[in-house]
């Protein structure tokens, strides 16, 4: 698969991996967590979402992933507008077109690493594509550890298994909410290297919420949120730029 940068025809518009059109979310009780957010995530790109606590990052991710329903506006995943789907089709889309990576790995303790990685396929009633599973297992560096249980792996290895699981259905997009939040600096860097590699080598689209400017600096584009809006979009940002921008917002 080619990466987005190699698709040399700017006039042929690709179907966005994710698109939000004027998405707002007001929680019961009146908190407006998202305020008319519009954005497009191009396929094969790595997007980071930053912003102070409470700025709406998780809400944005949940709405973009079809886990939560916006109060108004439209969300499309891989060209499918999710607001038009019934609940059955929507959970099917989530299962097959969206991958998730959480801070806490969320592996099933009783299953082997191999079975954890292929679980989304079994849940979807699909036979594993052996070549693809093999490619993923090698990319995430777990080839020798497939028979182990999650508790027999380090945190970084567990997160790499969770990343392989997130990619096993070849989703249009993988979302991560603080995927490196529970890891020490060196392990976090390894996981970020892996995410970067999956974008560059496999053309995977990744959207990652993070508080860490060094993590966001690995993305192609970093969005900065404040009060439910996207207030900045920094291309190929440096950690210093991002740290400065976030500190300024937190002082406002
Ligand atoms: N289920 C909910 N019910 C009511 N209000 C909520 C709910 N979830 C979030 N909020 C509110 O919506 C706003 C945005 O929350 P959100 O969790 O999206 O922020 P965040 O940027 O992810 O913050 P953090 O960095 O702390 O994870 C906050 O004011 C929060 O209190
Ligand atoms: Mg959050």
Explain how this protein is built.
The protein is an alpha/beta fold and 252 residues long. Helices cover 35% and strands 23% of the residues. It has eight helices and ten strands. It has helices at 57-64, 87-97, 113-123, 130-139, 155-167, 185-202, 213-216, 239-251; strands at residues 18-26, 32-41, 46-50, 72-77, 80-81, 98-102, 173-177, 206-209, 221-226, 229-235. The strands form two sheets. It has a six-stranded mixed sheet with strand order 6-7-8-3-9-10, with helices on both faces. A hairpin with a 2-residue loop joins β9 (221-226) and β10 (229-235). α3 (113-123) packs parallel to α5 and α5 (155-167) packs parallel to α6. The longest helix is centred in the last third of the chain and has 18 residues, at 185-202. It starts with 17 loop residues before the first strand and ends with a helix. 42% of the residues are buried. Residues 1-8 have low confidence and may be disordered. Bound molecules: adenosine-5'-triphosphate and magnesium ion. Adenosine-5'-triphosphate (ATP) binds next to α1.
- What is the strand content? 15-25%
pLDDT under 50 segments (min length 5)?
Answer: 1-8
In whole angstroms, how far apart are the ends?
44 Å
Element order: H for helix, E for strand = EEEHEEHEHHHEHEHEEH
**Which bin fits the share of residues in helices?**
25-40%
Number of distinct helices: 8
């Amino acid at each position: 698969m080619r990466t987005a940068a190699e698709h040399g025809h700017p006039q042929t518009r690709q179907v966005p991996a994710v698109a939000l059109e004027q998405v707002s979310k007001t929680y019961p009780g009146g908190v407006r967590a998202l305020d008319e957010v519009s954005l497009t995530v191009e396929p094969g790109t790595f997007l980071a979402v930053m912003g102070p606590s409470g700025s709406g990052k998780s809400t944005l991710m949940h709405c973009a992933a079809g886990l939560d329903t916006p109060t108004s506006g439209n969300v499309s995943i891989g060209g499918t507008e999710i607001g038009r789907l019934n609940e059955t089709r929507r959970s099917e889309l989530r299962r097959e077109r969206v991958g998730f990576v959480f801070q806490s790995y969320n592996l099933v303790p009783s299953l082997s690493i191999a079975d954890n990685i292929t679980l989304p396929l079994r849940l979807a009633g699909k036979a594993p594509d052996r070549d693809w599973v093999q490619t993923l297992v090698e990319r995430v560096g777990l080839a020798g550890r497939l028979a182990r249980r999650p508790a027999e792996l380090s945190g970084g290895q567990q997160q790499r298994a969770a990343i392989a699981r997130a990619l096993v259905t070849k989703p249009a997009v993988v979302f991560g909410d603080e995927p490196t939040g529970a890891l020490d600096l060196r392990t976090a860097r390894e996981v970020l290297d892996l995410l970067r590699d999956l974008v560059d080598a496999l053309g995977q689209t990744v959207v990652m919420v993070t508080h860490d400017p060094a993590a966001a600096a690995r993305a192609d584009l970093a969005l900065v949120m404040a009060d439910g809006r996207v207030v900045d979009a920094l291309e190929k940002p440096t950690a210093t730029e991002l740290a400065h921008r976030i500190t300024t917002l937190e002082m406002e």
